[in-house]
Write a structure and sequence with these properties.
The protein has 92 residues and is mainly α. It contains five helices and two strands. The longest helix has 19 residues. The radius of gyration is 15 Å and the shape is globular.
Length: 92
Amino acid sequence: MLASATWPFEVANALLGRATQAYHSGTSYGLTSAYYGFPISVKPIEVGRAFEQILSVARQQSLTEYDAAYLELALRTGLPLATLDGKVKTGG
């Protein structure tokens, strides 16, 4: 699987509340270590691509730059887009 360079930050952000809670209970390692085993390759985003192609997709589809990064990556590579986000699925 291939993911946008924003993926690790989005996962970390989603875990932030749970990880903080788990840290205080002494179980934080299990929450984050599970992600290391995922077969995901993170694709770097070049600055020019972020300001040109991805921003263009974001504007055309009424998406955030973050969501557009995933959509643009799927379009560019021809790979299917795995998302539960209805807005991204329908293109805005």
